[in-house]
Amino acid sequence: MAFSVSGTSAAVFTCLWIFVLTVKGQQQITAKTGDNVTLPCVNKSVGDIELLEWRRWDPEENVFVWKHGNMSQDDQHESFKNRLELKDSQIKDGNFSVILKNVNMKDTGTYECRVRNDKQPPPPQLICTITLTVTDSGGGAGRTGDGGDKDGGDKDGGKKDGGDKHVRDKEEGNKGGQNKNGGNKGGHVGLIVGLLITVVLLIVGIFIILIKCKWHLRKTSYFPPLDEEADHEPS
């Protein structure tokens, strides 16, 4: 019973260790359609290699195969031909990275980099795992299409912006005209009110002058009664 428990513990520990190593070496890369993507893989401890393989899973396909210093297209899947190259053609300092050109949605998947030196027996050693996710750039198959769409969008946007600006300028002009008309109207009303006030003041002034003149005439044209004049005549 103790032996069984010990063996189970060792198996569990081994599985966990393999899982940790796998997760540690796994990388996530996101790209857009039409991009050139570098799948990185570096391990300086491998030494001089005899075989380098890049393989994609789900589905299982050979992406890149390098044997005895030369690339082997015979072992490469048709969809990846003429689309991959070594980042370092001499594979110096354990740099096994490759460049995948003009990626598309079908390139999404999990890639593994495996190598074997001349002292190792098959199969090749797993160095790293890359998960590539390709998203749609929204402009067709490649960058040229993206640029065309972008230019067209900018052109249309320019027209739209120009039209909107023209409409805004026209609205602002109309608004300014309305404000101007309102100002003129207000000026006319003020002028009429001022004239009415002037006329009223002029009438009041004339009325006051007439009253004063009448009072002055009465005062200067006053004569005593005839009986009072007779009483003052000498007898």
Automatic annotation (TrEMBL):
One of its GO terms (cellular component) is external side of plasma membrane. Gene3D superfamilies: Immunoglobulins (2.60.40.10). Residues 175-184 have a biased composition (Gly residues). Keywords: Cell membrane, Disulfide bond, Glycoprotein, Immunoglobulin domain, Membrane, Receptor, Signal, Transmembrane, Transmembrane helix. It is a single-pass type I membrane protein. Residues 1-25 form the signal peptide. One of its GO terms (biological process) is positive regulation of T cell proliferation. InterPro entries: Ig-like_dom (IPR007110), Ig-like_dom_sf (IPR036179), Ig-like_fold (IPR013783), Ig_sub (IPR003599), Ig_V-set (IPR013106), T-cell_Activation_Regulation (IPR051713). It holds the Pfam family V-set. The chain crosses the membrane at residues 189-211. This is Ig-like domain-containing protein. It comes from Channa striata.
